[in-house]
Amino acid sequence: MSVVLAFETSCDETGVAIVRDGREVIANVVASQIDVHREFGGVVPEIASRQHTRVISQLTDKVLRDAGMPAGEGIDAIAATIGPGLMGSLLVGVSFARALAYAWNKPFIPTHHIEGHLFSVFLAEEAPEFPFLALVVSGGHTQLIQCSAPHEYEILGTTRDDAVGESFDKVARLLDLPYPGGPSIQKASANGNPEAYDFPRAMREKGGLDFSYSGLKTAVLYTLQEAKGKANIADVAASFQAAAVDVLLIKTRQAIAQTGAQRLIVAGGVAANKLLRERLQGELGIPVFVPPFAYCIDNAAMIAAAADSRIRCGAALPVDTPPQAGMSLV
Q1: Which of 50, 183, 227, 240 registers the highest number of CB atoms within 10 A of its CB?
Q2: CA 39, CA 73: separation in Å to the nearest integer?
Q3: H or E segment to which residue 15 belongs
Q4: What is the CA radius of gyration of the chain?
Q5: The pTM is what?
Q6: In Å, what is the CA distance from 301 to each residue of 59, 111, 112, 169, 188?
Q7: What integer is the mean pLDDT of 167-193?
Q8: ω into 180 cis (within 30 of 0)
Q9: Domains (ranges, CATH) in the chain?
Q10: Cβ distance 110 to 299 under 8 Å?
Q11: What is the pLDDT of residues 226-238, one digit of tens each?
Q12: Measured at the alpha carbon of residue 326, what is the angle toward residues 15 and 218, in degrees to the nearest 5?
């Protein structure tokens, strides 16, 4: 039995969680900074790191109280995200976690943010078996990853410019919709016609399994400029969302054909998108595993799950691994 206390501070959510055996979430809290960054239309790194500093101690106290583990009683290890992410934000979580591990004489497990998203599916009631293909779609990452075994990965495709989550945020800004863009565009799309505008599906037949979303964002911009304020926002949002999801489906089908994958997992904040979930689960012909909505966004429970697996496999990263803003998964 293993109980891991974990911290996630890679961007603008402060997450603290306690997870048993990589599957059972004992306590989990996430402090969102959406309201703080909304007026800027995106995350301001310096503000994000300051917000983490303000709340991380109180959130830790709350999680320990909720779990009935005062002063770390029953905690076997402490984990934190070391990258990728905003450097200032990463330093807050890693420094706090390392200090706590030292004070409590517990092992510290550095953990990769994307690996956390991969292991978020193990927090659901029904979890996949290895090997599987993974589609990771978050604010800063769009990747297809072949997962042969725990901690054995091959990046099959990644974004060449904007990640899909970034494109949602940028298009929402063009449409004067609230930040973050994902939920705003999904809501606006509910009353729109997804075939109203024929937006491009970039790199549909070329570029291997890589993605590109900057052209789609630019096409929306030109459409709005040509409409001179008369565009139907719901139709633009629905057409953009359809194009963005189409590209994910196209590349995922290609990856399944290329690898012969028998199961797919989908993780990251964009995995909460209703249209994406419905199409992936209804059109691919293989089992699709998606984490519960609470674990799609950045959270510490997924970091604890990944750290628990590292401990069990004897594959923990060196304890002195430094935070890295652009840290690669492989």
Answers
A1: 240
A2: 41
A3: strand 13-20
A4: 20
A5: 0.96
A6: 13, 12, 13, 25, 31
A7: 95
A8: yes
A9: 3-120+295-313 (3.30.420.40), 130-290 (3.30.420.40)
A10: no
A11: 999 899 999 999 9
A12: 95
